[in-house]
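Human: For the file, kindly provide a plain-text protein record giving the amino acid sequence and the backbone structure tokens, at your earliest convenience.
Assistant:
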Amino acid sequence: MKNITVSSLLKKYKIRPKKNLGQNFLVNTNLMNKLMDPLDLYPDEDLLEIGSGLGVFSSKLARHALGVLAIEKDRRLIEIARQEFVEQKNLKFVEGDFLKLDLESLLRNLRLPIKVIGNIPYNISSPILFKLLENHSLFQLAVLTVQKEVAKRLVAAPGSKDYGVLTVLLNSQVCCESLFDLEAGAFLPPPEVTSTAVKISFPNQPLHNIYNPTLFKRVVKTAFNQRRKTVRNTLKTLLKNNKIKPWEACAIDPNSRPERLTIAQYVTLANFLGPLL
């Protein structure tokens, strides 16, 4: 297998990263290996890569998997990757916007649930996380590189300033773990922020019994849209009948701020409100 680096391909093809696509290429080989470790990848497993770039990391991953399906939006990079790694028959590059792909159709011929890896663009990290969440039955675990501030929100505890909508909605269905930081120098071009690798595990059984996921999301977003107000006041916009006092039935302090409620309390609250709204 020929030794190809991201830096050599950038120079060879005179590639300039596109800022509007949030392109920051991981060039540190040691960190690529470090990102692979928590995947615990077996030779009989398929892998989905979000944002394959020039395909260097994709190629490395394919040596340890049954197959790698690598998604990339930038046509320039896809063409280079297909050309440079054509000999790896278990590596398939797909041009497309991950947020617009029909994942169920795309992955139907793979061994499900599969594992996911990706150095995802900072500007669309939340939409990507929610897309994975919406298709959670397809996945086993994901190792993703995100902005450090996003990672803090993913693992935040109730009562902290980072605890919010993203924390509650994701951790109601999956388990998030912060792994390690990646300094700006590990990328080309270096981003202006520190990145963090996170591990997301998708359990076989639901973590919480949410009766109406749409309503649950609505309750959580309504609460945190007015996080300086008390639960009593934030819920008023949802309640048609002012005589209803859900916090009493759910054993929740009505004077609590939204960030003080646990995920289980939000689930209880949404399940109680379902028949009333």
